[in-house]
Amino acid sequence: MHESETKPLPQPKILLSDLLKKLFNAEDLCLHAHINFIADLLVYHDCSDYLKGLVLSEIESDISTSSPPRIPATLQASRKSKIGDSPITYYINSIASIYHAHTELLTWNVLVLKAALYLLALPQIKPDLFEKQHTEHLNTIKRLFQRFRVANKSFFAKKKDAHALDYQAFLTLKFPALFLSLEQFVESALQPEADQELNDFQKNFCDELRIAFNYVLKSRPKIAKSSVDSKLQYRTWDTDGTINEIIETKKSNRGLANEQALDEQEDPSVIVQADQITPLARHSKNAQRMALSLIPKHMQRQDHLLTASCLLPSVYTISDLITYLYHDDKKHNDKSVLVVLLCLITGVGFKDWLNFQKRRVKRLNHRQVIKLQSDQYYLSTKFSIFEDATFEYPESLINNTVHLDIPIPNHFIDRIKAEPIITEDELKKKIRIIKDEVKIPQLNLSKTSSLLHHVILQKTGNRQLADIITGVDASHSSSSSYCHYNVNKLQKNYVKVLSELCTQLAENDYGDIVYSDQSICFGSQKAPSKNVIKDILFYLYTKIYTTSDNDWVESFNAYSIWMWHILLLFTAARPVRDFPGFLNNISFQQQTIMLSDKEVGGRRGFGRLIPLCAFLIGELKKYLRFLEHIQQHYMAINREISAQIDAIFNNEQPLLNLLQNGTLTPLTPSNVRDFHPEVGLAHPNWHRHTTRAFLTNKQIPEPLILALFGHEAFQQEAAHPFSSLSLNQYRALATHLNEMQEYFEIIGVNLNVLIA
Fold first, then answer.
1. C-alpha–C-alpha distance, residues 710 and 219, integer Å
2. In CATH terms, is domain 530-754 a member of 1.10.443?
3. Sorting pLDDT into bands at 50, 70 and 90, what band is 691?
4. What's in the keyword line of the UniProt record (predicted)?
């Protein structure tokens, strides 16, 4: 073998330009200016005297540099140029903002940049490490850049955020440690547990620095971890926990996922412990089969009769309990009584209130926080309801928040935060005393947070309202994904319920409550405002008549699209292909339509029954007369189209179609959107959200609304054998649906003008 064959292959060069392309990825906002700034910075401020051992000798700079550095123009985040769309660019730009003002802070940023470039180059420096199931450090780098972008901003921004001083104090305190070697810096200077001068926020920042620079020190890749976009939750169907329903919830875009899960209800998956139902099931298959056959009936009973269960006290008993606790708290100033009282009047669990006693704790749990606004404390709850922060016209939506703020008397929160801190054992002792005093045998700490929900449900019959006020998230709620409420009215309804439970509590402690602004509405951010809907429908209506040279094809298409939107609005259906189905799905005699608007897994069953209002019946009849007119008038001109219209009347072709290239094509959400892109909202389900918002405050029994939307409880679907909803009751909903015509000022088609 020749000597030349034994020499190892030369290591390919690691070019700075390639690393920066990987770093910026798809970001193109002033890209070249920021790349040039990084190259200049690494040469002009190489920081070789700091963190000995942090060197980039393997990386070759192939970008021409300038001295002094070429500083890019300052960027301002806006609705069209968001930080989240270009996080790397905005971080580099923040370095440019502090270039002339803060030498020490500039040193920190250059060292962070050098560490990031080394981690990016690591797969080429040590390729053998990445042959296994390892991954690169892009997320580590982005997290570190985000931290330092905020830190840079804290030094020069006029308006300081809550942690601006924490960043400044930490970076100033740790700056002398930068003269250490990289190993000493990681192993001694960045040990948050040993540093008593740091608060919790600074310790977390220190820990993130330690993790990132330790990757550099050890030249260590990250271990790739599989990530699942869903998690499993369990719903118990009985008090003993022998029957549990498995609910799969999405982690990303939870609001949209909850809405889809609500609309596309699958058959429930249930785990049953048969041997806990009957011990005989352990040794007998026949006993197991017998136990399992009883499960559906048991589930039905638990779901339908839960509100009437003897395990929940009556509303009058709960009123007596709250009144007793209120007077006992006033008399003895007992903090444990206050915790129980807060559980009862907020629906928040006792463990969250116990944890909230700690001085630094601001959040009750991952969804709820106590916030101070306008000298008033609020329990602020974030719901997993659809929101779109990127939507350019939020003022055109009827709802503007997915957070609900419930007022709480200030002195309640002040006392919870004050000493002494009570424990769970002390609380359990107190609840036993309370249970004996008020004579409620089934009272326990776990039940205290569910009693307010029980009261609201009993008083209003509206489970959605009870869920929202008590903070039940959309993944466990009754159609909350479609809700619409005025926050001010919700808060006043909440205080009204408390006044009915304990008059003294409402008068003495809630009398001076500051309510939210009346313009704030809570709910899904899909429903447009009233004026937007009026404009859209009127625009589509005028298109029917304003055709070029009386082109009947244009009129036909415009009429079909207008009917599509009107039908979606007045039936609360989901926009799916071939909607609303065939003509025989409509019964003018019964004034109903049978819709199948679920596409996931195919159309199952016969769909659901929807009542038709008088306005919609009239418009459908006019549309059918229009089809007959076209068929008769143009039969001799185009027999093929005449035959296709025949197919509509013979239930062989869907009712609504577009005429394109001489052929009738059934309407779909995509071709409707393409036909009128100028009126297409970002989310095609807006009709359904609009109808739900309209019906919310109409004093309509909730079972009727749930039936309209297909959100009924298991085995309680309209026309189901076990359903208690009569068809006559259901038809009464048509009167309220008909009111939308006047509310949105919808004009019916003048057929005489159209076919003249």
1. 56
2. yes
3. very high
4. Plasmid
